[in-house]
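Morning!

As promised:
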Amino acid sequence: MLHIKCPHCGMRSQNEFSYGGDATVKRPELNKEVTDQEWDNFVYNRVSPRGKHFELWQHLSGCRQWIKVERDTATHEIFKTYKANEEIA
Amino acid sequence: MTQSYRIETGGLINRNKKISFKFNGVTYFGYEGDTLASALLANGVHLVGRSFKYHRPRGFFGAGVDEPYAVVQLYRNGETEPNIKATEQELFEGLKASSVNCWPSVNFDIGAINNFLKIFLPAGFYYKTFMWPKSFWYKIYEPFIRKAAGLGVASTKHDKERYEHKYEYCDILIAGSGPSGLASAYSAAKNGAKVILAEDKPRYGGSLLTSDVNIGNQSGKDWADAIISELKEMPNVTVKNRSQVFGYYDHNMLVMSEKVSDHLPKTKKYHPNKRLWYIRAKEVLISSGSIERPIVFGNNDTPGVMLSSAAKEYLKVYGVLVGRKPLVFTNNDSGYETAIEFKKHGVEPIVLDSRSNPQSEIIDEAKNLGINIKNSHVVVAAQGYKKVKSADVATISEDKKTLGKIENIICDCICVSGFWTPTIHLASQSGNKTKFNEEIDAFVPGVSKQNETTLGAANGVFTLEETLKTSFEKGEELSKKITEKDNEISIPNVVEKKYSKHDKFWCVPLPKGKSYKRFLDFQNDVAVSDVEIALREGYRSIEHVKRYTTLGMATDQGKTSNLNGLQLVSEIENKVVPSVGHTTFRPPYTPISIGAIVGREVGKHSKPTRKSPIHNWHEEHNAVFVDAGVWLRPRYYKRGNETLFEASKREAKNVRMNVGVCDVTTLGKIDVKGPDAAEFLNRVYTNAWLKLPVGKARYGVMLREDGIVMDDGTTTRISENHYHMTTTTAQAANVLSHLEYYLQLVWPELNVNVVSTTEQWAGAAIAGPKSRDLLQKLFPKTDVSNEGLPFMGYVEGDLFGVKARIFRISFSGELAYEVNVESDNGRFMWEKIIELGEEFQIQPYGTEALSTLRIEMGHVAGSELDGRTIPYDNALEGLLSKKKDFIGKRSLQRAAFVAEDRQRIVGVVPLDKKTSIPEGSHLVKDANAPLPNKKLGHISASCWSVEHDNPFSLAILKDGKKMIGEKLFVMSPLKNKVIPVEIVSSHYVDPKGERVRS
């Protein structure tokens, strides 16, 4: 079980969180014309990297904040966690 | 029976407490502190089972977790449990156990015929033989294999035992309480670190219990006892015996299984049988020791052949002689320790040492004691079927290839020592890159991936002095980093015998003309010849060889066989062992009860049960409950002998005729507050929200970004910046997360807060033509007229002193209201409604009537909003705003979503107006078309329309818009039904929606 540092609550076990997918996906702005391809990329298309991955988790059974986690998908090493409003570097 | 193999004194058992037990129906006696294995051996019982494949007699091979043979079926507390290692099961009064894998009995086992057929049962036999004809598999091969194979039977009864889970954090977790575990725990604890010390056996001390050493002027065992007593007194230390750390997971999470009650005749009331500890440790010290490895020779599986360390343990811990004429066969000095113990107890052992001229302190001691030592000697084969009777021995050449003249020696046990294999399982599980240590012919931990350190014998360190020194130092070093305290500990003096070098020799060659089975894996009957076949057939990877031959599989996971298997593969392949590599070590280290893994999450505890504050009233009024997600909801209120069908019809009819009341507390409720709340709702819902006035409710549908309907519900503007959102019972949690996602990540600029208020409010839906009259009685001071409280209106009211929210919303399609009060007042509200509703013939109604009412009205619910439908499919396209953007809007342009013949909700009525339609059935054009019959749609929900008094269903049907009036067939192969039906509008009752506005 992963041990994730919630930027608001500190180190917590994985079972307090729920996974929320790729954190680098940006929703197209409202009312903006987007092509089918752009929309498909937002809704469906994801890379599944082996290695470093920025992902979203929600601290569901804790502070309920969505956070960003920089994790290695192969080793499960977590390098850094970010608050929802922090830009990932 | 007498314990004829028990020595007069000595051992760590309690001779004052005699214990009786039964094995295979025979009553024996042992002592408190015995294991089932030691007690049986004390009674001279060596035959405990039959082997997996050839049904050869099986005895005891080890004395602990590594045991491959003595797996028994245990009966305890009216339950039976398979896969119990007799070497680990502690004796208790009244214990019953029996042999497995034999029929009719362990002494006469019909399956042993396989032993004579073994020439036909080589590696991969099952794969090769039972392949064809295909039809034979289910009827002939599988039942036969199932009957013949397997170790024990699982109980078919509900497990009455209780299992617990515990979560723990510590600075340093130490696995194993041998010398290194004790030393590191001691120095870490002295520095104030929070330490957990886990020992899988009942007794602490590991090898110190059986070795002849001195630490700080006391015996090893006394030193261990003193350390343990001191640790137990320290508040920062948790010491646990009977606790196996069996799994090393990510981020230094380890799982340990504590046997709380297995050693007792019965689990104490409210105690668990086992407790599973999830331990998150900052540092892990693995001091799991080592397991002696066997030397391979002919018939080395005969009962009476066992590890020399086990023989020593039986003698020193349990006071049991495993034989009176022991032969010790060794390639290193360890065997001499066992021989000396025998000699000290008046038994004359013979030592066969494969080395030509070994010299060491301990060998000198053995010589001085007058022990018969034969150098350059090996056991060629054990003789005897159910028990060793003698051994064929021979001299062996220096290159270990040529045997001398074979001579037979009478003996009753053969104690084997092929040197030591570090127990690296936990380290390997943690991701440690293990490396091969040529010096000891075994793998040891290498580079750590997580915060773990392996110490002592598990790290390939076999001298006590070095083990203690490194362990004290490591415990101190790691704890100092964590606690920033440093209490110097003086490392005690150690007196131990120096070992000479072991012989890199592991397998006795076959003598000319003999074809003895030489077993590598004792639990799975894998012999040297099987691995040779696998390699001849082209298997190269050690993982493939393992699976083809089953080497190292099953409950012991090859603890005594893996390394010899690797030696063989590397020898045949002419490679060095490290390049062959070892198979992957995976948790669990040793079998763990499924019950322990499941813990308390069984039966009704497998999920939480949520009850409305009105639950007790329902119970008192004959409600029959149904699981609605995690909630318990009344399905119907039973009167007399009514069936579900009759009751729900009565309740629904009463709503249409008079007035009914339904507990809707379970609906998800979310408070949406803030100056941007309207804008937020406008983005979340598909329809327009910016102009909803205070005191008004609106029905809304929300989509996922992929255009699929996520949920629906009404949201009411309570005040300027405060909205009360309702969700379906099932989606409440998901909707909240969804809203939080957009507020926190996508539109953080919106000043809005959301919070779940589901538990804060109890809700009652009052529905039916007489509901307004009832409402007026409930709220005499409130204007509830059609003008004062119009459809989709909201007012606050006073319910006899209790603050209430009144919404005029309807799910049933009738004139209806929903009253909410704070949860604690839920029952008060409900009883008032029932009391004042009496004159209007009020009846409570359950979820079944609720469904009936909404289905015949054509209102969609979870069965239509099933994660596969878009608004159009549910005839909700009127709610899609054209003027604004909202979540998921762009997806609705997808070609499939705008297709002319898109699926759509319809009503379905059987032509005979009698046959009820099973939910989930398919709709087809032609009932007699060849299979696969093309599916046009499916029945999403069915009811008995109380308005029309005939069955009615909703369906999602391809091109549904154009299908109204068509005649189709409903097919349910599951229920074996074919029903001719007519497609009608989904609004079967009051299609214009006049009642709700009346």
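The CA atoms of residues 607 and 630 of chain B lie 7 Å apart.

Hope this helps with the figure draft.
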